[in-house]
Amino acid sequence: MELNYQERLQAQLDLLKQTVKRPNVMILGQAGAGKSTLANLVFGSNNIKTGSGRSVTKGINYYKSEQKGIGIFDTQGYELGEAAEKEFYDNVVSVALNPAGNLDGEFVHLCWYCIPAVRERVQDIDVETIKTIRSAGIPIAVILTKSDLLSVYALAQLSGKLEAALPPNTPIFKSSKIKDIDAGEIDRICDWSCHSLDSSLRTAFTRAQIFQLQAKKDAAANIVKQSLRATELLAKSRLSADVSYKVNVCCLTMVADILYIYEMEEIEDLLNGTISDIAGKNNLVSLFSVALELVSEILGEIITEGTEGRVNGRLIGEFFSNWGHTGAAKTMVAAVGSTLIDTCASLAKDAIDGKTFDAMSGKLLTQKLQADIMKRLGN
Ligand SMILES: Nc1nc2c(ncn2[C@@H]2O[C@H](COP(=O)(O)OP(=O)(O)O)[C@@H](O)[C@H]2O)c(=O)[nH]1
Ligand SMILES: [Mg+2]
Fold first, then answer.
1. Which distant-in-sequence residues (6+ apart) come within 8 Å of 345 by Cβ?
2. Which end of the chain is more exposed for a tag (fewer CB within 10 A), N or C?
């Protein structure tokens, strides 16, 4: 059977995008509090604006990003004054506590309550809203935005005031759009958010946030572990064409899952699409499909030639000096998995650091991917 790995990989990624459950985050706070800025810090540059917004109720819009796999309830915030505050409170509470009542029947899974750090007092309306949402069982954290505008001392004072006014153990974080100021806090916001979500929503959140690379790495390592278990079951018998096909499918699923967690399509955007230009291929997915071609080639050689077969000029026997069929298949899955994680992690880091791919062509990346897999097969 002639297989087009690129198309199959893309199809698998599209399937994941359609089926993984989407978390909805509600971002609350006054107009100008820095809500959009925070969302961009966590989810990357073009998340909210690219999703199409729908008005849920007065002052609350819902943005659903298919690409990101995340939904955002963006509240426009309140004006000062009793009537306006009451309206804000009623709207927020009705949307958060009564999913069936809002436009799409979307649940609010998580709330970030933004308070600009320059604010000196804690408003009653803030405390009341946070208490109500919290007592409804929806995780809510306070985020002191624009923390660069306040001294460490003044920030601590504001935190203290908030702590005294809010229900015990309400998490309070800081954020700043200025790079390197409180950068670690964005990690902590992501970490807290991830762990506050139901486990069925964590995958999508881990994927959507761009900063917590360790969380992505852990999730990806878990994917490899599961694939190894599946491979072990598959390859118990002699490596026939049928088994080899199944191992290949297992690899393909694993590769798609890893690319999904790292959100390689977004990374590609962040790297300014220069990879595709230089590689002369369509996209990163096509680049990663070479890993699958390699797997298929090795499996093919093993079946037809046994250990005497050659891949990239090297004897297969060199890779598996002491190999049973199960061991060989597992070694290969592990090699592809760990190579892919390293490659994705490094590309994601480059994207976060604002690098582009002028220096390293897609061709080099492909070669490195292959070489790394071959090297790991030897270990
Ligand atoms: N100094 C500083 N300004 C910020 C920060 N976050 C947002 N801003 C600015 O505050 C204004 C409002 O931000 P925006 O994210 O649109 O607020 P939103 O109305 O709550 O969505 C913009 O001019 C931002 O550049 C920050 O961390 N530090
Ligand atoms: Mg905004």
1. 213, 216, 217, 262
2. N
